[in-house]
Amino acid sequence: MDQKIWYIPARNDRLEKKVGIYCRVSTNEKEQLYSLAAQISALTRAVANVSQWRLADVFIDIASAKGEIPRREFERLLRECEAHNISVVLTKSISRFGRDTVETLSAINRLKAAGVRIIFEQENLDTDEVDSNLMISVMESLAQAENESRSGNIRLGLAMRAANGTSGLYKRKLYGYTKDKDEELVIDDEQAKVVRDIFRWYLDGASVLGIIKKLSDAGIPSPTGKGTWSKRSIEKMLENEKYTGTVTLLDSATQEYRYQMKECHPPIITESEFRAVQQEKKKRSNIVRDDDGKHRSSKKYSSKNK
Fold first, then answer.
1. Where is the Resolvase/invertase-type recombinase catalytic domain (predicted)?
2. 0.70 exceeded by the pTM?
3. Which residues pair with 261 in a beta bridge?
4. 17-151 maps to which CATH number?
């Protein structure tokens, strides 16, 4: 009797899982890129250590946790998971995954609805475990508090350096100055003459546009090397107290910290000249306010007057 032999393939109860790695750093500075490389390396090794896992894709974002910059790779990760192209997401930590508790839990719920497992390596958390959502909520809150504390420490450090005079902001270069071998501001004689001329012309009655014409006629390039100076560059120069040798630092975010260093560097103009220019600017203001609102009080120094 003829015998028929049928091939019956072995059942594979341990199907291969396609893994997606998600990494994020805040900036593209060198130290952050080193951190990014370390994240990718560690998570890739973790995937290699599990025989049923296969690395399907790596998703990388460079975006601050507090910024409004869209995380395109994070959104791509969610789409790939919902398309069932990835079944396991591996990430370094909760703070790298979501910007806050609401975003983190929203993403986790989307992924779990798609049947995707998420593992946070640093916290040793796994969404396949019971009560994982509650634990992740707690850990995310702690991570968020830690990030805010770190931001506060950075701001405190900046304030302390401003207070003790070691902040690099005191020595930020501007037109009229150069830096010596010790990174100290020293006067650039050629540019300083231009600065003095601009202040003198203004006090002698020249308008900002009139000053621009004088500079153009003299063939003097702007601070950026262009042939024509912008109106804003002249206005900013006339308002810059740094030309008197005094530097004032202000926290632009909160307006809380204000530090002033006098005789920070050699002055190009005197304090009395600077004050005179500020008084002249106020006097020339074309817009005055009365009980009925605003009206133009003078056309002597308007943009049409050279």
1. 18-165
2. no
3. 247
4. 3.40.50.1390
pLDDT band at 189 (very low <50, low <70, confident <90, very high): very high
Domain 168-296 classified CATH 3.90.1750.20? Answer: yes
Tokens representing 37 are 């490389």
Half-sphere exposure of 203 (CA within 13 A, CB side): 16
Which pLDDT score is estimated for 122? 83
- For the chain, give every residue range classified as CATH 3.40.50.1390: 17-151
Residues of the chain with CATH 3.90.1750.20: 168-296
By the 8 A CB rule, do 37 and 65 touch?
no
Q: How far is it between the farthest Cα atoms of the chain? A: 121
> What single string gives the DSSP state of each residue in 1-16?
--------PPP-SS--
Q: How far apart are CA 93 and CA 100, in angstroms?
A: 12
